Amino acid sequence: MLLIVALLFPACINDNDEPTPSTRTVTMPIVLRIHSGQVMTKSKGDPGITETFALPEYAYLFVYLERGGAVYKTYYTPFALDPELWVSDTNDGRYITTDDPIYRYTGNLNFQIAPSDEWTSGRVYVAVSKQELHLTCNGTDLSTLSDPETLPMQTLESLQGVTFTVDTDVKDRLQDIYSTPYDYNVSGNYYGMLDRTDANRPRADLLLYHVAAKVDLMWNVDATVQSELRISELTLLDLFGDEAYLFRPMENAEPATTYQKTLFNTYTGDDVGSQWYGRRYIYAIPYYNASSHFPVSTAWQFNGDASGSYKVIFDNAKPSQNAGFTPWVRGDVTFKMKPGYN
Question: How far apart are CA 117 and CA 115, in angstroms?
Fold first, then answer.
């Protein structure tokens, strides 16, 4: 059953000497939008490949409140979304976007929060996904909580460092995960700061962005060698398969676990037309190796022979230049002779 009702948050307990927060609450509305495109490193004049996205069915909300520069309350709750309640929307000019579609959730997402006369500043971090996510916060497996709202008081850093598991169910749904990048600032402030204009009714209106990067590969076998060379299989290697940051998507370290994904195999009848030229993409969790390169390798199989593995350096800026947004990275490969294998 989908939960589209008001969500109640009991106060978290603070162990320090500060007064225990009161149990007074006010209703806070939250508006969620998702941006279906990548805002970083898109090639000018390149429309890419037509894509389809599944609208999110799960949401994960974290709220951090401060009073006098110290943590006052923290909230967490997962809740369900009705995919039929997402509607096409337009950019109102407040946040960075491209020409790609934007969708707004029209369901009632009001929930209860401490009134803003009890705290001096507040932040909201939200993620949405088509696939249910397995989250960890500061060593706590959030799926093990009997009541999700009992998550102990957290620091700002621990909420920003929430991770999700890139497991089998999630790998093919990475393009359908969106979140609020923790370091995206508008007018010098984090863009998910709570609006306290109305003291009795704080609110948040957020645009969420892709957690995964788009890895786009184009290839071409030169016409002079097409009679003796054709590509029979293409696999991407070294894909991130570990715990990934939810709100810090450009800060993932090199993982202990990786996986690979075969994009096509012409011998199984899969896209025979791609044996000389083509284009495929996947979404992958970004991370960087010691050379600050996006470390995705490719394994090509030619004429059914044993695979050869080749590095493709994808064109994209270093993490510090990306302002928290995951990029669209593109690699172009041309074969003019039959490669040797390594």
Answer: 6
